[in-house]
Amino acid sequence: MDIQGGELNLAELFSDDNNFPKIKEELRALNHYRVEVGVMIPVGNKSLAFLQMIATVNEFGAEIYPKNGPYLVIPMKDGSFYKLKHVKIPERSFLRDGIDLGMFRINELVERDLSRIMNSELTAYELYEDVGRLIQQRIKDEIKLKVTPHNAPITIENKGKDDPLVDTGALHKSIGCKVIEI
After folding, report:
1. In whole angstroms, what is the distance from residue 153 CA to residue 84 CA?
2. Cα separation of 42 and 22, whole Å?
3. 151-160, Cβ contacts within 8 angstroms, sequence gap of 24 or more
4. Phi–psi pair at 147, nearest 5 degrees
5. Distances (CA, A) of 168 to 50, 106, 156, 172
6. pLDDT tens-digit profile of 150-159?
7. Start-end of H helices in 119-174
8. What region does 112 belong to: left with phi over 0, alpha with psi -120 to 50, or beta?
């Protein structure tokens, strides 16, 4: 059954050798899945909880104040320390921007994959896999592309570079996706 070009042959649709029941089942199956994309993979010695905290702080920004004294003590690579009264980490939305700025491509993919389902070339589960992989890649791209706001001078000194969301690469590697049956 070919529905490309807006033509639909009803005799073919209701013949015994059509794929309409399978197509109908796959379209219904679209309501039985969801895709999750985000910080999902522990990397090296970085726990999943730690990487999710780093992602949250960068996604929404944060202000950090000392709890056990008047200063935060920031260790430096050379063994010295900085004392600060507080630290302000600016918002660097890579998760939301990865989706929002890629919405056109995501919509195109869904439209293409729905056509493939209608032509019995793809399953509902595979559509969700495709969407998950695209969003995963968009978020990873956004991590690399996000260069503002710049790192603070102390951070640049410690990291040796001004690459706000990249230090060891663990955050980038932690981005995963999975399709969940609901």
Report:
1. 13
2. 39
3. 152/87, 154/74, 154/76, 154/82, 154/84, 157/76, 158/74, 158/76, 158/77, 160/77
4. -115, -5
5. 14, 29, 14, 9
6. 999 999 998 9
7. 124-145, 153-159, 170-173
8. alpha
Distance in angstroms (rounded) separating the CA atoms of residues 97 and 111: 21
Q: For 126-141, how does the pLDDT look when each residue is reduced to its tens digit (9 = 90+)? A: 999 999 999 999 999 9
Please tell me the predicted confidence (pLDDT) of residue 40: 98
Residue 31 has pLDDT above 80, yes or no: yes
State the Cα–Cα distance between residues 74 and 77, nearest whole angstrom.
10
Return the structure tokens found at 40: 């999902």
pTM over 0.90: no
Specify whether the CB–CB gap between 51 and 42 falls below 8 A. yes
> Is the pLDDT confidence value at 104 over 60?
yes
The region of weakest confidence among 9-23, 33-47, 48-62, 143-157 is 9-23
Per-residue 3-state assignment (H helix, E strand, C coil) for 46-110 = ECHHHHHHHHHHHHHCEEECCCCCCCEEEECCCCCEEEECCEEECCCCCHHHHHHCCHHHHHHHH
